[in-house]
Design goal:
alpha+beta; OB fold (Dihydrolipoamide Acetyltransferase, E2P); 36% strand
């Protein structure tokens, strides 16, 4: 699919805490040492970016989520940077929305 993107409904933070090795989401403090229940490895909780978007072409609009590497490429901020800004009480929604609005994207969509 290819189309133009706009910022989706961001009802959550633009970041989440995840296990460093497999990126599984955990509601734990960043820096916590854990053994992951999914991959059975031991590592730390880190911050990952997560930004909801809409992708619209001539026929439809789909909802998608951008994660760390794609967020860095499109927005120029890591999950850790988004967390730091949010911790200061600053909302990045307007700035991010303006930066990505109508950006042309090509993506592959998997259906399950």
């Amino acid at each position: 699919m290819q189309g133009r993107i706009t910022l989706g409904l961001a009802s959550q933070s633009l970041w989440f805490s995840a296990y460093n090795n497999c990126d599984k989401k955990f509601d734990l403090q960043v820096g916590s040492d854990i053994r992951c229940s999914s991959c059975n490895q031991r590592s730390q909780i880190t911050v990952r970016a997560r930004i909801p978007i809409y992708i619209k072409d001539d026929t439809e609009t789909i909802t998608a989520v951008l994660y760390e590497e794609d967020v860095v490429q499109l927005v120029g901020r890591t999950g850790a940077e988004l967390k730091d800004v949010e911790d200061q009480g600053i909302s990045m929604l307007k700035k991010i929305g303006g930066r990505i609005k109508n950006y042309h994207i090509v993506c592959y969509v998997r259906f399950y």
